[in-house]
Amino acid sequence: MSPAPASSLPVALSCGEPAGVGPELACRAWEALRERLAFFLIGDARHLPDTAPHVRIADPAEAAAAMAHGLPVLHRDFGPGVTPGVAQAAHAQPVIDAIAEGVSLVMAGRARALCTAPIHKQALAEGAGFAYPGHTEYLAAQAGVERVVMMLASPELRVVPVTIHLSLAEVPAALTPALLEETLRITHAGLVQRFGLAAPRIAVAGLNPHAGEGGRMGREEIALIAPVLDRLRAEGMEIAGPLSADTMFHPAARARYDVAVCMYHDQALIPIKTLDFDRGVNVTLGLPFLRTSPDHGTAFDIAGQGLANPASLIAALEMAGSTAAEPA
Q1: For the whole model, what pTM was predicted?
Q2: Is 235:184 a contact under the CB 8 Å cutoff?
Q3: Domains in the chain, start-ordered, CATH in brackets?
């Protein structure tokens, strides 16, 4: 039997930290998407809010039919119950297993894409020896990929940071021509393969104020960034830059590119979170499947109170299920 076309498959949603806002947001997302997108939760159905309609399924193929009746759940027994806001060591390994199962289902062609609810990295490290900095690195290891790229996307803007969780003092040394080139190539390929852009327009920020101002405020743009951009332009990529970051994010500037590649974390994340804080989606480029995630954490302080905003998870599921997000 030939595999089902990707467009007919449901999206897999790994549960994330069960003591966080993930369970309640999954139910809110089902309410919003029940008539237009099939997805299923991998996790313990007992962790959902008591009043939330849900349907235990035995196979992802049952998700589409189950959507009419409740949130489809591929139930896995996590053992102890949940206290909102309090992570438990006993849940750490089942949380990791849910992510791994999601990867397996997507790579086996039984789910269309993987959306991941937020995890609590400290809880996973303490409860199960989780040695990865986060979801992204773990997914790359599961898929056998050495290098992936984090993209934050919203209807207003897409951004990619070349360096991520480093102090500003560490960024210049970490920013190498090889890292920049690899980031640009993965970003370009991801926009072509996953987002259906035949010729992505990439804007690249400089590292220094005013993109170095001709060397007066730093020479990284001249010595490091520009040669990489010139080489990729010669191959046919449409790349602008290095540009002054302080003029890249107003409406007229954003209309000229499909993604902004920035040199460090805040240079990329401040503009997107300012423009569209609630609907930002974390997308991992470079994997052999599409992975999205809401751009927020476990929010232990409001877990179980019905206060969490589901907009980012809804946007992440919609992006994972959009027809434009299929591989080329």
Answers
A1: 0.91
A2: no
A3: 1-148+287-328 (3.40.718.10), 156-275 (3.40.718.10)
HSE-CB for 156 with a 13 A CA cutoff? 15
**Mean pLDDT in runs of 10 for the chain (328 residues)?**
63 97 97 96 96 96 98 96 94 97 96 96 95 90 94 96 93 97 98 94 98 95 98 98 97 98 97 93 95 93 94 96 60
Look up residue 64 and give its two tokens: 């589409």
Cis peptide before 172 (omega within 30 of 0): no
Which CA distances in Å does 166 have to 134, 139, 172? 14, 21, 10
Q: How far apart are CA 271 and CA 223, in angstroms?
A: 26
The DSSP bridge pattern shows strands 201-205 and 238-243 to be parallel
Name residue 165's amino acid: H
The first and second tokens of residue 193, run together, are 């393969």
Contact yes or no for 237/188 (Cβ under 8 A): yes
**Dist CA 165 CA 188 (whole Å):** 22
